[in-house]
Amino acid sequence: MTVVPHELVAGVLSETPDLSVSLMPLRGRFSLRLMPEGTDPAGEVLGFRLPTRIGARQAAGSREVVCLGPDEWLVVCDDADRAVIEQGVATLAASVPHALVDLSDRELTVMVSGSRATELLTLGWPRDPQSVAVGTARRTVFDGVTVVIWRDGETQWRLDVWRSFAPHVLDLLLTGCRELAAG
Amino acid sequence: MLLITCPYCQETLPEAEFVYAGEAHIARPEDPSQVSDEAWRDFLFIRTNPKGPHFERWRHLHGCGRFFNAVRDTVSDRFLTTYKAGEPKPDLATLTGEAK
Questions:
Q1: What CATH number does domain A11-26+106-182 carry, 3.30.1360.120, 1.20.58.1370, 3.40.50.10750, 3.40.50.300?
Q2: Mind giving me the DSSP string for A17-76?
Q3: Domain at A28-102, CATH from 3.40.50.720, 3.30.70.1520, 1.10.10.10, 3.90.230.10
């Protein structure tokens, strides 16, 4: 069971007509590392083709995967799905050298959406938001903290933040919300 | 801020996503116990520190996590090229346009 600081309860944290920041419920997460030869068998077990372009995503039902590096993927799933994925990928142990690590307790997800969402992210994000196409995701840096930023829509973003960095990132985002609201 | 092209991500990204990791193409001696103290000291500590194009390692820490090599001009801070780790040293004369 993930232990989160008591003030980090899933729900809406800030809401204005053009900007909303909310903490999402906890999800299952895995880091999957394997060599390129293993992508096909691993994809068969997981139910989708593993994308090989960095930043590309695939989804099947509630499962989602993003390619973070040449040999690294992040798999997100429902809590109940965790055991299924673990057992499924374990069947590859003999044939495909790999590492599957359960990261579920490590990260929280913040949803940022609304017409000013992209503007809010530029507060701590040095790269050009337009370089991340809709439907892709990137591991990148947000005010010094490593985050995975998912772009779900033109103005809808998700940030996966390490639990211990979450208070810092959320404070910054909420300060930004107040600044934007103040004009 | 410097803009650095990651050869693995194939994107040009802000310096804040990267960390510097020292001079590139320094091979560890195959059998350290056979190396003289002076040669071992040189391997550990002695670097070229050039004024001009410098072969160096960088890591895309907040990204794909990969180490790669770059050629950067230490005077102008301009990146001449970046290439994947393990690839041979690019020809400096071609990069600086002095090959003609």
A1: 3.30.1360.120
A2: TTEEEEEPPP-EEEEEEE-GGGHHHHHHHHTSPPP-STT-EEEETTEEEEEEETTEEEEE
A3: 3.30.70.1520
Q: In a structure prediction context, what are the per-residue pLDDT tens digits for chain A, which is 183 residues long?
A: 566 666 788 899 999 999 999 999 999 999 999 998 999 999 999 999 999 999 999 999 999 999 999 999 999 999 999 999 999 999 999 999 999 999 999 999 999 999 999 999 999 999 999 999 999 999 999 999 999 999 999 999 999 999 999 999 999 999 999 999 997
* B26 and A CB contact within 8 Å: no
Which of A141, A148, A159 would best serve as a mutation to test chain B binding (most B beta carbons within 10 A)? Answer: A141
B1 and A CB contact within 8 Å: yes
Q: Is A68 on the interface with B (CB under 8 A)?
A: yes
CA distance A152 to A133: 9
For residue A124, the chain B residue with the least C-alpha distance is: B16
Q: Is the ipTM of this complex over 0.90?
A: no
Q: Specify the residue for token string 């007509």.
A: A17
List the domain boundaries for chain A: 11-26+106-182, 28-102
**Hey, which residues does B72 pair with through a beta bridge?**
B54, B79
B52 has a chain A CB within 8 A of its CB: no
Whether residues B63 and A127 touch (CB distance < 8 A) is answered with: no
pTM of the model: 0.90
Asked if B1 and A141 come within 8 Å (Cβ–Cβ), the reply is: no
